[in-house]
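Summary of Year 1 activities. Much of the first year was spent building the evaluation harness for sequence design. The harness presents a backbone, in tokenized form, and records the residue chosen at every position. We chose the following record to illustrate the format because it has been used consistently in internal testing since the harness was completed.
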């Protein structure tokens, strides 16, 4: 039976992102929304390649996060108010944390991560 592209984009996955030695943030994200363009933005970041427009790069990076993150349990300093995943809020989140989240997602969806253990080379 055919599957709609929108159904693939609507599927979500959950991962735990370690923060420090004893804390973690749960992130629900949409793996099917990671487009080629988003992947290249992330790759440029990970490879530390020079970008012509750092501001545009950051805008694209933050927009990609908002597009692929459905929810997280990152809270305000009051310890209970969840920070909604909006463009304005993501821009305020510390950059090292955002890179940790996106790197964790990419590791989770990489082809190597999807190979069953039994078929991995020994």
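For this record, the design step produced the sequence shown next.
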């Amino acid at each position: 039976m055919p599957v709609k592209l929108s159904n693939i984009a609507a599927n979500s996955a959950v991962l735990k992102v370690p923060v420090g030695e004893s804390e973690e943030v749960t992130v629900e994200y949409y793996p099917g929304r990671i487009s080629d363009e988003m992947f290249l933005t992330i790759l440029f970041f990970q490879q530390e390649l020079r970008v012509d427009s750092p501001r545009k790069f950051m805008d694209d990076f933050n927009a990609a996060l908002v597009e692929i993150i459905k929810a997280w349990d990152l809270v305000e300093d009051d310890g209970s108010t969840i920070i909604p995943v909006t463009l304005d809020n993501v821009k305020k989140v510390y950059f090292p944390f955002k890179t940790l989240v996106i790197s964790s997602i990419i590791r989770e969806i990489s082809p190597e991560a999807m190979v069953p253990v039994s078929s991995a080379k020994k």
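Residues 5-108 form one domain. Quantitative recovery figures across the full test set are reported in Table 2.
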